[in-house]
Recover the amino acids of this structure.
C-alpha cells in the first residue's frame, strides 16, 4: 500500500488521536474511513444535485408545453360539426 504524508496542525492531530483511540483505530485507518465517508456523502450530494437539475428541466419543459396551442382534436371537431347540421 502506498504511503502518503500529510501535515496537520497540532490541535487537529490531537483530536485525531483522541478519536482514533476511542474508535480503536490507528491514524491511517481513521483517515481511510473518514475519506470513504466523504466520498459517500459527495456521491449523495452529486445525486441530489442531479435530481434537482432534472426536476428543473422537467418544470421548464412543462412550462414550454403549456405555452403551445392545444393539439387539434379531430373527433371533437367532427362531433361539433354534426351537432351544427
Amino acid at each position: 500500500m502506498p504511503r502518503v504524508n500529510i501535515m496537520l496542525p497540532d490541535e487537529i492531530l490531537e483530536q485525531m488521536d483522541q478519536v482514533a483511540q476511542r474508535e480503536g483505530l490507528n491514524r491511517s485507518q481513521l483517515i481511510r474511513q473518514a475519506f470513504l465517508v466523504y466520498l459517500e456523502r459527495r456521491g449523495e450530494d452529486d445525486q441530489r444535485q442531479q435530481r434537482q437539475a432534472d426536476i428543473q428541466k422537467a418544470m421548464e419543459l412543462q412550462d414550454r408545453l403549456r405555452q403551445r396551442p392545444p393539439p387539434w382534436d379531430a373527433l371533437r371537431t367532427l362531433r361539433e360539426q354534426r351537432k351544427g347540421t
Notes: Residues 10-68 form one domain. The radius of gyration is 30 Å. The CA atoms of residues 44 and 63 lie 29 Å apart.
